[in-house]
Specification:
Elements lengths: L5 E6 L6 H12 L3 E3 L18 H4 L4 E2 L12 H16 L4 E5 L3 H9 L9 H14 L1 H11 L1 H4 L7 H14 L17 E8 L2 H17 L2 H8 L13 H8 L5 H24 L4 E5 L3 H14 L2
Parallel strand pairs: 1-4, 1-5, 2-3, 2-4, 5-6
Helix pairs in contact: 1-13, 3-4, 5-6, 5-8, 6-8, 9-12, 10-11, 11-12
């Protein structure tokens, strides 16, 4: 890999059209796509994770999409290694590669590397987990808010493993977890150009609602029912699965579960946008269609030489 190679990163909030845009760019360049999604990396839940089907991929090879079993643990650190290996493979055949996904920790891991975080002493871990067991999720969220209000606005507050981990690390480091992030940025041996899809909020919300309705029509309930025995796995701790599990458990009607998916997806999209707007290296692209967006991205990339 060298500066003759370019990784074109296409990110943005959920349902913004990233996948179709990435495929259009890859087709124009005759290259391949590397996924950057912490849930699409798993097999078995393609409806819940909105994985692009074979027809949508249009013959473009995708790496790190539907490659893991639901039972396999995964992390941003492992993603960094796997994504770099995928890029090295692609760059052996092509000058450019496309990276596509909305998992911001994965995008950051690939572009900047993983931060060197302190080990959490056993006493701190035991104390935090004891509080969690005793007082529940709400108390842990409040504790994170007190320790690190910045990260509180970024993290998925329904992903309690991340919430608890941030509390642990804030206590272990003696300072907010967010201040530990981005401290050890590495320079990759290839060019990185980052783009995000720009949409008006009303249009984004309309697309989210439409996608959720399509997920239900494509068999979301049956898909979640099939994996329900594995519900304790972190791979299933995701919007779409959790709400349908509530429906299957009799805690909500299907209409209530679908409304909750739409609401929680909008919350997640806002968190993605908050994260993205902090990155001043991102170029925002208006993409009325995937083809128009691809043309605008390639004009930028090729114009830089």
């Amino acid at each position: 890999m060298s500066d003759r190679h370019t990784a074109i990163v296409i990110t943005g909030p959920t349902a913004s059209g990233k996948s179709a845009l990435a495929v259009s760019v890859a087709l124009r360049l005759d290259t391949e796509v590397v996924g950057a999604d912490s849930r699409q990396v798993y097999r078995g839940i393609p409806v819940a994770t909105a994985v692009a089907g074979e027809e949508e991929r249009r013959g473009v090879r995708h790496h790190l999409v539907e490659t893991l079993e639901l039972t396999e643990p995964y992390s941003a650190a492992r993603y960094e290694r796997d994504a770099l290996a995928s890029l090295e493979d692609i760059f052996s055949r092509h000058s450019e590669a496309v990276v596509c996904g909305g998992s911001m920790m994965y995008v950051d891991a690939l572009c900047h590397g993983i931060d060197d975080l302190p080990d959490v002493p056993p006493k701190i871990r035991e104390s935090v987990y004891a509080q969690w067991r005793r007082q529940g999720d709400a108390a842990m969220r409040l504790r994170l808010l007190g320790l690190d209000p910045d990260y509180y606005t970024r993290v998925d507050l329904d992903n309690m493993k991340r919430v608890v981990h941030a509390v642990e690390l804030s206590l272990a480091a003696g300072r907010p977890y967010s201040t530990l992030l981005g401290a050890a940025r590495v320079r990759r041996p290839f060019r990185i150009r980052k783009f995000a899809v720009a949409l008006e909020r009303e249009e984004l919300y309309r697309r989210i609602d439409l996608r959720v309705d399509e997920m239900v029509e494509r068999g979301l309930v049956k898909e979640v029912e099939r994996v329900a025995p594995l519900r304790a796995l972190n791979s299933l701790n995701t919007v779409g699965v959790k709400e349908i599990l509530g429906y299957l458990d009799g805690k909500a009607t299907l209409a209530e579960a679908v409304a909750a998916i739409k609401r929680n997806t909008r919350v997640y999209a806002r968190k993605q946008l908050t994260w993205l707007r902090r990155d001043h290296n991102i170029i925002w692209i208006e993409a009325p269609t995937a083809e128009e967006g691809a043309s605008r991205i390639l004009l930028r990339v090729k114009g830089e030489g």
